[in-house]
Inverse folding.
């Protein structure tokens, strides 16, 4: 997922945006680790993919994350709203939704591998776990998984000091930023927009008890974590 944008020079080109995103994600991850201490050993990382027309973000089981520049340029989210996006994606990883998707993708890969072995298919670039990882990002989650990620994500953001009301304003902005009022790719497999807004508005009062913006919230530091990581893991 990251090799092509890196090769094309479209990865992490905006230091100011990278700093902003790492701070927000770092606060969210610190809360994720509090809730799930086992994730402290995940290889957390976040990259900015420079695709101005793509409104999307993802997080893989294991902590690897990406945000497309188009989401920031077209939606223009506040920090509170951006925290809702990242919190939602982190929640998919915490709830093992991407791992479930990879299981489906690996089954798909068995069929593809059989096809590849049947002839000369030099154009087949992705195989094995790499294909499963790509499909895990691209295959739609179930609506139940999306609702679960919404609930966990808004709580993570609130615990990290980001206003729960931003979950509602984010979705309104997302719709306004979409051509013809259609949902962007990031939202295409999610519950119906109006139903989702109703549910998010219902969740906001419940999450306000976790929202304490006056506190100094802990931050997961990506660079420090990378330096502590064994060299062979860093190189992957």
């Amino acid at each position: 997922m990251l090799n092509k944008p890196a090769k094309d020079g479209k990865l992490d080109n905006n230091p100011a945006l990278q700093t902003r995103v790492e701070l927000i994600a770092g606060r969210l991850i610190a809360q994720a680790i509090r809730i799930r201490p086992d994730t402290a050993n995940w290889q957390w990382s976040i990259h900015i993919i420079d695709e101005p027309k793509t409104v999307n973000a993802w997080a893989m089981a294991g902590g690897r994350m990406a945000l497309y520049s188009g989401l920031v340029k077209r939606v223009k989210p506040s920090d509170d709203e951006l925290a809702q996006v990242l919190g939602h994606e982190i929640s998919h990883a915490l709830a093992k939704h991407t791992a479930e998707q990879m299981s489906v993708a690996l089954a798909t890969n068995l069929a593809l591998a059989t096809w590849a072995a049947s002839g000369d298919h030099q154009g087949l670039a992705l195989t094995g776990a790499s294909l499963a990882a790509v499909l895990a990002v691209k295959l739609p989650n179930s609506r139940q998984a999306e609702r679960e990620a919404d609930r966990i994500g808004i709580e993570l953001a609130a615990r990290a000091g980001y206003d729960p009301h931003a979950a509602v304003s984010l979705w309104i902005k997302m719709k306004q930023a979409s051509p013809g009022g259609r949902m962007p790719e990031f939202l295409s497999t999610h519950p119906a927009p109006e139903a989702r807004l109703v549910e998010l508005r219902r969740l906001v009062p419940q999450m306000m008890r976790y929202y304490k913006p006056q506190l100094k919230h802990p931050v997961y530091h990506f660079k420090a974590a990378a330096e502590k990581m064994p060299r062979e893991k860093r190189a992957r």
Notes: The chain has one domain: 3-95+143-234.
